[in-house]
């Protein structure tokens, strides 16, 4: 269907009308307003503005605001309105009938108070019987977004009887209508179930097209009363025709001859002149990564090649949406702006610093306006997209010169149809907007400025882009009263001026130099000579020689258009000197000047030297020799200095004592023993785990010359790792070899094979994290508190040895038995020197969710940062393997901790236990408890566990006994159990102060002593019999058991003295053994 988009001026209402002419349908568009409840002081003018705005208008592109209209006004011109894209506001009126009889759809792209698409309130006169009585919304059938608010209309009838839910599209929005009958046609609730939206009858064949909004007269997309998305030449479509379409034959994108731009809810062939084209849309402003350019009088958005010119939000838009005026709280937001995406509004509340909502603000001083607007915009100029509204101004400023760089007023948003408003400013005498060259849309309203002059000289129509734009100027200073000083400068043309002086002219009568009008250019005289480019005086290039014989110095810009050069001439260009070693396209360029000051090429190094004089050649040879001599002398001096330094160093070495000075630290020597194992002594069985730097195997250590088999864990460094990883691996061996404690995994030895191997004790039950997760239904309060004590004692030992672990977590605690756990993984641990209190780490991956805040920010690790990790480890135990900060990205953890958030209280913990955790997570490291204090605190709790941990069925919980066949089977699945010996028994044969029963480390062990067939080996009744109901001295117990048990079995029994794991008191585990059963 053919479509024509015609823009013309209507003499009836003085507006630009965009007429879409179809074969049978036409629509008239007009702009909406955003004034809300603010009105002009003159009610007559308020009504005239409303009529001019909406007479003969069918589609309001924006908001329809009807406010402050008295009862005697004729509002019949509103009957032509069929669609509003924003909201409809009817408030503070006195008329009795709202004649919006043809309004079918309110789109609600903008909503009043961000909630309502239709707001009707306060439409009555308090001291009379005048007010709104009837809503003429007979054809309103759809509100796409937003709700309805109807309240405080004293005389309004039947509004509460309207079926608003049929009109409002969003079913979740409840219309707020206060009861106070219009005939409304229902188009949604009466439809058949098969209809997607609206209908024109109750039958299945009466469904509207899915793109229709507000109802329809038939089933086609051209029968819609309004469109849900876009109107393309009378047809409702999902999107406008795109600039390019895909050709399935050529597999290429091709230009679409039917392409149109999206303008509101319409598809148009051409955007309005005061809008910007961005891709296939008409927009008010370009996005932040693009800038606005004009080509053939069409404004377009193009991508910035570098940094985009700064575009700022105007009053009433984006970040300043709630602002009513420029004031001291937001004036700094306009600094360095080249464009204002919105409006500039100056009201008395901002200028005087008076505000009734958020408190008073400081007054805007003249120096603030100058600093922000004039000085920052001096070079780049400014383009407000909306309007400039000045209703208040500092009293000590007599003009608007702060906007002397204002180039364009876009008028894409208007204030009651006005784009430039200067109202009631008694002290302004001139506008001084000398850079203003365009007002794209809207009218000019300048009134009641008693001292304002020059306004009558301005040719306003020369600034306008549309024929319907008007100038409304009245009640300013009478031009007849102007003195001789209040007239335009004689150098100004008849187009007028903005103020006094030759720099305020709209156009120059003769010539212009920059912004200043002059009577002639400096063609033949003056310090700086010029040439005339039309009526503009342009300076000659600085390399042009100034003529003194009344002749021209240049005739065009650039150094190639000089009549005569000031210094030298190189080809067509005047230059300051001839090129001397200038980098050219292929090689360096050397030129010399002849007598006529023209530069010619200089050929050297065996090439023909055309025109070269003898003095030049001689100078080149002498210069080369001079350079050679300087280089030789420099080398000789350098060699001499090095020789002197060597002699002085040797003399100092021979004269100085060879013994280093003593600086004793007072630290006891580290006498730990490191056992070097042979690779033939080790046998790997299977892989337990692997990481980035190595692999851990379950294996057997068979000491050379002996038959015992010791289950071990073998940690092997990967072959692909570098020297740094080898050093760190040996540092870990040093730390483990230096530590000996019941709750630290012990290093058995190091194998210096091509791939270094660390051999440690094998913990059969794996890591504590997996253990608590697997056995969470059988772990009681006593056992949890025991583990807290053991970890604290192990860390207390590390603190006494000045070692920072840096990676304490439940995954790095291993389970030897349910009653005995050990801390491991010293890969990140660091020994502190005597004078060190902290360790500063380099880069690398870190366990952020277990680390203190100072470790994350500054990589500073101390014993108190280990306390933080201890708190997280305890939290893991109390949640039976819960993940700390689960679901929160690691990058967000520092901000979360700084805001005061911490891990939640586990369900089984009382406030006493949780407070211990919270103390571990204090921001101030010195405020956290010491490990000694933590061990003592959990010892106290372990004596009465059910008081501090509440676990359902605590008394009935019992873990499997460690003295069964599964215990040994878990040590080594693939090997026979004969000659099996625990590592601690092998290394410390006199453990627990019991005389050795079977063997010493260097004597052969009879494997028959450690057989599973021993009649007492799996006899848990032995330990639960009355014989062991009270503590027995070890000296009495050993002779009793020695005839029956092998040394390894006895050691196992002594290591696990309780069958019921919930009855262990960890606070006595490190004390001398007083009996098998603790009281």
From TrEMBL:
Transmembrane annotation, as ranges: 616-639
Protein keywords: ATP-binding, Cell membrane, Disulfide bond, Glycoprotein, Kinase, Membrane, Nucleotide-binding, Nucleus, Phosphoprotein, Receptor, Repeat, Signal, Transferase, Transmembrane, Transmembrane helix, Tyrosine-protein kinase, Ubl conjugation
Binding site residues for ATP: 688-696, 715
Location within or outside the cell: Cell membrane; Nucleus
Catalytic site positions: 807
GO molecular function: ATP binding; epidermal growth factor receptor binding; transmembrane receptor protein tyrosine kinase activity
Gene Ontology CC annotations of this record: basal plasma membrane; nucleus; receptor complex
Membrane topology: Single-pass type I membrane protein
Domain Protein kinase: start-end pairs: 682-949
Catalysed reactions, as listed in the record: L-tyrosyl-[protein] + ATP = O-phospho-L-tyrosyl-[protein] + ADP + H(+)
Biological process, per Gene Ontology: cell development; ERBB4 signaling pathway; negative regulation of apoptotic process; neuron differentiation; positive regulation of cell population proliferation; regulation of developmental process; regulation of signal transduction
EC number: 2.7.10.1
Primary site of residence: membrane
SMART domains per record: FU, TyrKc
Family: Belongs to the protein kinase superfamily. Tyr protein kinase family. EGF receptor subfamily.
Protein name, as recorded: Receptor protein-tyrosine kinase
Organismal lineage: Eukaryota, Metazoa, Chordata, Craniata, Vertebrata
